[in-house]
Amino acid sequence: MSFSDKVLICDQVDAVLNDILKKNGLAVTYEPQITPEDLAKKIGDYEIIVVRSRTTLTKDLVEKATKCKIMARVGVGLDNIDTDAAKAKNIRVINAVEGAMNAVAELVIGLMLAMARDIPRADRELRNDKWIKKELMGTELAGKYLGIVGLGNIGKRLARLARALNMNIIGFDVVPIDPEFAKDVGLIKADLDTLLQSADYVSLHVPLLDSTKNLINANRLSTMKKTARIINTSRGGTVDENALYEALKSGNLGGAALDVFEKEPAIGNKLVSLPNFIATPHIGAQTKEAQSLAANVIAEKIIQILRGVI
Ligand code: NAD
């Protein structure tokens, strides 16, 4: 079956998306640098619009997408598509949750190791000709308690990787946790307060919702161990950054690593002045494998929707 629909790819995405769509007869236009003004002029000509992170499909743009059947995000979060506006116009909105699972989970392991052994500081000091071996007494992840908040795709993958490093996994989710998975990783189920009080590392894997805004606030931070470390690779806004700054500065929290921020790009963020804080610029899904997998998933979903299979 071949299709005649026109596809506009608005951001840089793995070439496999283009290849699969073209093989299926779709006319693909690749404009990874398209401006919002240009997009507003062209969007009405396309049945399928694909974005990654750069382009935001605002209400105004969605309304101009008069022929559109599918809006696709080559990634997980749908923060850059006005899904309500799309729904009102009967446009299917799709994403690729599977793509980032392993990439984000591996980044969390990397951030935990970086904090446990102070790798960023070790590297920085050596570049300044300082051999600070004696100051770099680290700790090991094995045997430590990792509290995972949100056991969806990424949280579950992280649990499996951390288990392989002999960490103990404590988990909290607002929906029931698959018992088979829980058994596999020896999951200790807990409520959020117990998890925060018991964990050596806490990693967040929840969406940003009204109910998760500032989920980790001053009050909750104050219940954590003074040596505990927190990792957020989910969405900025789930951790109250002012409260985190105070907890880290006062020594009431051992450390923190953020990949996501309330305001991005997080240039000039005061957290980066703290020695017990490390940061990455929202690179959770930024691996070749994740991008290629996400592009594959989106291509397959588009074809299946056009075939009427899903
Ligand atoms: P998912 O939907 O599979 O899992 C999210 C889980 O959080 C669900 O099980 C849900 O029940 C749970 N949850 C919701 N509210 C909760 C609450 N108040 N307390 C505890 N659990 C709660 O999502 P995912 O694919 O695992 O992604 C998790 C997060 O990671 C999302 O915010 C996503 O946007 C983000 N993400 C970040 C990057 C990055 O580059 N850093 C990449 C991909 C995804």
Structural description of this entry:
The longest helix is centred in the last third of the chain and has 20 residues, at 288-307. The protein has 2 domains: 6-99 and 288-307, Rossmann fold; 101-279, NAD(P)-binding Rossmann-like Domain (Rossmann fold). It is 36% helix and 15% strand. The strands form 2 sheets. The protein has a 7-stranded parallel beta sheet, with helices on both faces. Strands 2-1-3-4-5 form a 5-stranded parallel beta sheet. It has 12 helices and 12 strands. It is of the alpha/beta class and 310 residues long. Nicotinamide-adenine-dinucleotide (NAD) binds at residues 76-77, 97, 100, 104, 149-155, 172-175, 205-207, 211-212, 215, 233-235, 259-260, 282, 284-285. It holds the Pfam family 2-Hacid_dh_C. Keywords: Amino-acid biosynthesis, NAD, Oxidoreductase.
